[in-house]
């Protein structure tokens, strides 16, 4: 019996060789064009290296004391903003999420809720923050509104998807007992989505804290404003201290929420 | 015991009294915390500004409309830059994230005493800091421009891709790894034949997902000088040219929708 | 020929998995290794190709010791083919890549990375796929195959190594009774053809008795039975597994065997009718 002595692995994605090589060629051309459109000012980078070193020094030997008052105020704003916006966001997300679930909401309600989610998700938090600052003035209230709005887009979408994926037979069994709409939600839907909703809420708490450190750059309060000021002043020791605080708080809250999730689920 | 005896009859309750009290106390604590935070947060709020917010909003809307469509001509080049920041930044992020993920995964890490904690720290540090903050730092160090934006996106992507990828590596089927090792394959060959095929779908999904997020992020990096369409946004905002801002928002919206569509298509293809 | 001398394995957690196991397997001999779960069957075969490092004892393959210290692991493993429980194919690679992965111990990393295997290896892989009846599936992904087909790929992968010994871990664990027999038959035939010694780790005693030349019974890390299958009586089974009504099991096994014999008879008669 004669068998082949050569074997080539079949291509993974695109079977047609002409198409495959033109895709490869297209990607290559794009990369060349994209990279060549990046202008690099080497003298500026060379001058900046010194600052880079100072920044690393600032990170390794942070200065928590000189501007301790600013850091403290910024942190308090960030943390309070995080808590209030997460709570407000969850409270609004639950009805919006229920309304955006195709299997339990009537069509007009579904359309309105889905539109709200789409708007909230399409824009970066920073862009929302710019608008809210323009309307409500500088300060953490604008930040609170921004984060609440962003939370709605995030939580409602995931909650709606969860509700759409529930085990229908459980809800049906409750409906069969003669339960009303609210009772079906309470007995047939809520127990199925509750653990994940809790996990997502804690996850969003983490995200809101991280975002609260950024929106200050456009004037919406929080530690981001302090960080921005210290960078403007070339005060890298304070900037390093703020970054370390952010990292530590994120680590702590991630650890805390993972412990809490383990206990609840 | 949820069932207790009262007046000689069994009474069913959902929870034991102690547990019920604990739950009520937790809810109460949450409410108190929220109210307290709300008050602390609003100590500096000037409520007069808040009261005339509807007026401000109406004013803003009237100045934003009609959009200054002619401004569109000057947005194509920044848009090209924005897409490049996201794409090149994601690619650069992948280059660093892949080795970090292999060092961080408990089943592939060569040293659990030093390298694994280090890799995990890199991931946490990168994830904690938003790309806009990375951009702020990089603009101060290497100067404004695309390069700062690309590096900011890359630095933020390392943590995101690294975390999801190392979780995927930890979930691979060990039997396939054992089987390839049993043929006498070297460490690298085991990676190539047993580990990589198992994580490839997750890896491509994660990368495209992050690219999609990075498109959004790169639209605003220009606010701190890191290139892209955000630079135009910054200058229009500074001039209070809200009709131009409307055009920029419209362009961003369309870009985001297109990138989401592309990423969904590509993810489908890789499964 | 495989010689195992005083093989002992104590895990760090303190489990004493193997307590001085010794035996010799002659060329072409197929040995069934039976015993309750946790008796050390899996540890024993993994100690032979050093997926698990034994605490004490020696293993000789064709008179060369393969347990000695830091000796080249790659060289040891590539001489020993292994077939796994639930196949352990790399699901997302093609059938051909899975078979060729049997040559990984012989080729350089770059050669294997670019899938440029020597022509001889590829020729052998096609011959093996033909032998196990999967030639037309060569370029399919492994996860597109049925259970029996996957185990055939697993067999081809092990044989692609040109092994001097086959280690087989629960080859029929997730297969239906008919496919299990086909797989066992194929393994035994292949060992006969190339005079290859094999150790089959197996739960199904009846299936083992039907196919293997010799049975070793392991209990709590010690050999408690080592003889031809026909000598495995109720007393021996009790020594291996503990007290149980063995007569009932034997009865069903014999019925099965009769069914099998009848099926063979029927096939022969049908073919005779054709002539």
From TrEMBL, chain A:
It holds the Pfam family BPD_transp_1. It comes from the Bacteria. PROSITE patterns: ABC_TM1. Coiled coil: none annotated. This is Phosphate-import permease protein PhnE. Residues 75-257 form the ABC transmembrane type-1 domain. The keyword Mitochondrion does not apply. Its main location: membrane. Keywords: Cell membrane, Membrane, Transmembrane, Transmembrane helix, Transport. The lineage of its organism: Bacteria, Pseudomonadati, Pseudomonadota, Alphaproteobacteria, Hyphomicrobiales. InterPro entries: MetI-like (IPR000515), MetI-like_sf (IPR035906), PhnE/PtxC (IPR005769). It is found in: Cell membrane. GO terms for cellular component: plasma membrane. The gene is phnE_2. Belongs to the binding-protein-dependent transport system permease family. The keyword Transferase does not apply. It is a multi-pass membrane protein. The chain crosses the membrane at residues 21-38, 83-105, 126-155, 238-256. One of its GO terms (molecular function) is ABC-type phosphonate transporter activity.
TrEMBL record, chain B:
The chain crosses the membrane at residues 21-41, 85-106, 135-155, 245-264. Belongs to the binding-protein-dependent transport system permease family. SUPFAM superfamilies: MetI-like (SSF161098). This is Phosphate-import permease protein PhnE. CDD domains: TM_PBP2 (cd06261). Keywords: Cell membrane, Membrane, Transmembrane, Transmembrane helix, Transport. It comes from Methylobrevis pamukkalensis. It holds the Pfam family BPD_transp_1. Gene3D superfamilies: MetI-like. One of its GO terms (molecular function) is ABC-type phosphonate transporter activity. InterPro entries: MetI-like, MetI-like_sf, PhnE/PtxC. Residues 79-263 form the ABC transmembrane type-1 domain. It is found in: Cell membrane. It is a multi-pass membrane protein. NCBIfam families: PhnE.
Automatic annotation (TrEMBL), chain C:
PROSITE patterns: ABC_TRANSPORTER_1, ABC_TRANSPORTER_2. The keyword Amino-acid biosynthesis does not apply. GO terms for cellular component: membrane. Keywords: ATP-binding, Cell membrane, Membrane, Nucleotide-binding, Translocase, Transport. It comes from the Bacteria. Pfam families: ABC_tran. GO terms for molecular function: ABC-type phosphonate transporter activity; ATP binding; ATP hydrolysis activity. Residues 2-245 form the ABC transporter domain. Belongs to the ABC transporter superfamily. This is Arginine transport ATP-binding protein ArtM. It comes from Methylobrevis pamukkalensis.
């Amino acid at each position: 019996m004669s068998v082949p002595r050569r074997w080539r692995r079949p291509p993974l994605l695109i079977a047609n060789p002409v198409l495959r090589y033109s895709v490869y060629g297209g990607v290559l051309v794009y990369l060349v064009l994209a990279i060549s459109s990046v202008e690099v000012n080497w003298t500026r980078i060379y001058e900046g290296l010194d600052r880079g070193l100072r920044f690393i020094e600032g990170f390794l030997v942070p200065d928590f004391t000189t501007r301790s008052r600013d850091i403290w105020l910024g942190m308090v704003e960030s943390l309070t903003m995080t808590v209030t916006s997460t709570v407000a966001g969850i409270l609004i997300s639950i009805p919006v999420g229920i309304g955006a679930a195709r299997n339990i909401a009537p069509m007009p309600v579904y359309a309105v809720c889905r539109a709200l989610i789409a708007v909230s998700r399409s824009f970066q938090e920073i862009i929302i923050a710019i608008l809210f600052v323009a309307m409500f003035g500088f300060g953490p209230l604008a930040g609170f509104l921004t984060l609440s709005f962003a939370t709605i887009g995030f939580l409602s979408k995931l909650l709606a998807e969860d509700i759409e994926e529930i085990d229908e037979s459980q809800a049906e069994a409750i409906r069969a007992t003669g339960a009303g709409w609210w009772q079906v939600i309470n007995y047939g839907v809520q127990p199925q989505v509750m653990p994940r909703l809790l996990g997502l809420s804690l996850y969003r708490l983490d995200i809101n804290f991280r975002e609260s450190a950024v929106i200050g750059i456009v004037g919406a309060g929080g530690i981001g404003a302090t960080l921005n000021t210290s960078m403007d002043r070339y005060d890298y020791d304070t900037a390093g201290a703020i970054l370390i605080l952010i990292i530590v708080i994120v680590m702590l809250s991630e650890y805390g929420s993972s412990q809490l999730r383990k206990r609840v689920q | 015991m949820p069932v207790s005896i009262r007046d000689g009859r069994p009474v069913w309750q959902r929870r034991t009294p102690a547990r019920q009290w604990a739950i009520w106390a937790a809810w109460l604590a949450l409410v108190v915390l929220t109210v307290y935070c709300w008050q602390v947060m609003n100590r500096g709020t000037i409520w007069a500004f808040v009261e005339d917010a509807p007026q401000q909003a109406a004013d803003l809307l009237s100045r934003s409309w009609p959009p200054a469509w002619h401004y569109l001509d000057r947005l194509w080049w920044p848009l090209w830059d924005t897409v490049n920041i996201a794409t090149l930044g994601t690619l650069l992020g992948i280059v660093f994230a892949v080795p970090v993920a292999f060092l961080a995964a408990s089943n592939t890490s060569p040293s659990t005493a030093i390298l694994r904690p280090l890799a995990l720290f890199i991931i946490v540090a990168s994830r904690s800091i938003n790309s806009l903050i990375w951009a702020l730092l990089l603009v101060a160090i290497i100067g404004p421009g695309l390069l700062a934006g690309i590096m900011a996106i890359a630095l933020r992507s390392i943590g995101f891709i690294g975390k999801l990828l190392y979780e995927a590596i930890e979930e691979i089927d060990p039997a396939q790894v054992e089987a390839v090792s049993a043929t006498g394959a070297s460490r690298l060959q085991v990676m190539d034949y047993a580990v990589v095929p198992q994580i490839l779908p997750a890896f491509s999904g994660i990368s495209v997902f992050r690219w999609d997020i990075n498109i959004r992020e790169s639209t605003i990096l220009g606010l701190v000088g890191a290139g892209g369409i955000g630079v135009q946004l910054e200058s229009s905002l500074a001039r209070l040219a809200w009709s131009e801002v409307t055009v920029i928002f419209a362009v961003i919206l369309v870009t985001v929708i297109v990138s989401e569509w592309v990423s969904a298509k590509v993810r489908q293809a890789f499964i | 020929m495989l010689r195992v001398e005083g093989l002992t394995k104590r895990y760090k957690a303190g489990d004493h998995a193997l307590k001085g196991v010794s035996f010799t397997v002659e060329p072409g001999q197929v040995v069934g290794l039976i015993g309750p779960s946790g008796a050390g069957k899996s540890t024993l075969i993994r100690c032979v190709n050093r997926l698990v490092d034994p605490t004490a004892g020696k293993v000789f393959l064709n008179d060369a010791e393969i347990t000695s210290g830091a000796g080249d692991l790659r060289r040891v493993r590539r001489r020993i083919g292994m077939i796994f429980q639930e196949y352990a194919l790399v699901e997302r690679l093609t059938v051909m890549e899975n078979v060729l992965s049997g040559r990984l111990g012989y080729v350089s990393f770059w050669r294997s990375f670019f899938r440029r295997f020597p022509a001889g290896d590829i020729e052998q892989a096609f011959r093996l796929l033909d032998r196990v009846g999967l030639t037309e599936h060569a370029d399919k992904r492994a996860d597109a195959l049925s259970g029996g087909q996957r185990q055939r790929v697993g067999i081809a992968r092990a044989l692609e190594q040109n092994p001097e010994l086959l280690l087989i871990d629960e080859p029929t664990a997730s297969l239906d009774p008919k496919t299990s027999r086909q797989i066992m038959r194929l393994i035994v035939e292949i060992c006969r053809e190339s005079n290859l010694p094999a150790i089959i780790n197996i739960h199904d005693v009846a299936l083992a008795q039907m196919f293997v030349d010799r049975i070793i019974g392991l209990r709590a890390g010690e050999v408690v039975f080592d003889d031809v299958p026909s000598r495995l009586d109720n007393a021996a089974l009790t020594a291996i597994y503990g007290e149980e009504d063995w007569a009932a099991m034997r009865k069903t096994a014999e019925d099965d065997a009769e069914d099998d014999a009848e099926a063979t008879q029927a096939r022969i008669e049908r073919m005779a009718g054709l002539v």
